[in-house]
């Protein structure tokens, strides 16, 4: 349903470095750059854009990025730990969301809650809670 999301950040290059390093295990990479705006994504499509913030921001944003396996989620966790990022929730099943929901939650450089999630639809079909 969502084509892309644009996030304004304090330092675009630092955020690009953070997301490509921590979420690299799920395939996130820099795909496009237009001036000070950078598009990240996977499989050639930039779903996530970063641009400079126009001022101070205090609202927390939650970004959930799709992983293709539990191993990718675990890879994000390992990369976050290696970078020294704050891990909000270590990888685990979150059955309160739906059976088969496996995720890790980390704090990004701007204080946002960034998640890698794998939906194991073999456990519960799409739309089944």
What tags apply to this protein structure?
2 helices, 2,3-Dihydroxybiphenyl 1,2-Dioxygenase, domain 1, 19% helix, 4-stranded mixed β-sheet, 8 strands
Account of the protein in words:
By secondary structure, the protein is an alpha/beta fold. It has a single domain (5-119), classed as 2,3-Dihydroxybiphenyl 1,2-Dioxygenase, domain 1 (Roll), CATH 3.10.180.10. It contains 2 helices and 8 strands. The chain has helices spanning 12-22, 70-83, and strands spanning 5-9, 29-34, 37-42, 45-52, 62-66, 87-93, 101-107, 113-119. Strands 1-4-3-2 form a 4-stranded mixed beta sheet, covered by helices on one side. Strands 5-8-7-6 form a 4-stranded mixed beta sheet, covered by helices on one side. Strand 3 (37-42) and strand 4 form a beta hairpin. It is globular. The two termini are 19 Å apart. 28% of the residues are buried.
Query: Which runs of at least 5 residues are low in confidence (pLDDT < 50)?
Result: none
Structural class by SSE content: alpha/beta
DSSP strand count? 8
Mean pLDDT score:
93
CATH architecture: Roll
The CATH class: Alpha Beta
String of helices and strands: EHEEEEHEEE
CA radius of gyration is 15 Å
In spatial order, strands of the major sheet run 1-4-3-2
CATH level-four homologous superfamily name: 2,3-Dihydroxybiphenyl 1,2-Dioxygenase, domain 1
């Amino acid at each position: 349903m969502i084509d892309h999301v644009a996030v304004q950040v304090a330092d675009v290059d630092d955020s690009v470095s953070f997301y490509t390093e921590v979420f690299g295990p799920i395939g996130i990479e820099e795909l496009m750059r237009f001036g000070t705006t950078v598009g990240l994504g996977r499989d050639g499509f930039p779903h996530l854009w970063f641009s400079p913030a126009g001022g101070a921001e205090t609202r927390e944003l939650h970004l959930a990025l799709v992983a293709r396996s539990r191993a990718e989620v675990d890879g994000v966790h390992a990369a976050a730990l290696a970078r020294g990022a704050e891990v909000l929730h270590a990888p685990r099943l979150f059955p309160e969301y739906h059976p088969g929901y496996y995720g890790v939650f980390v704090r990004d450089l701007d204080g946002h809650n960034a998640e890698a999630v794998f939906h194991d639809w073999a456990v519960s079909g799409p739309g089944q809670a």
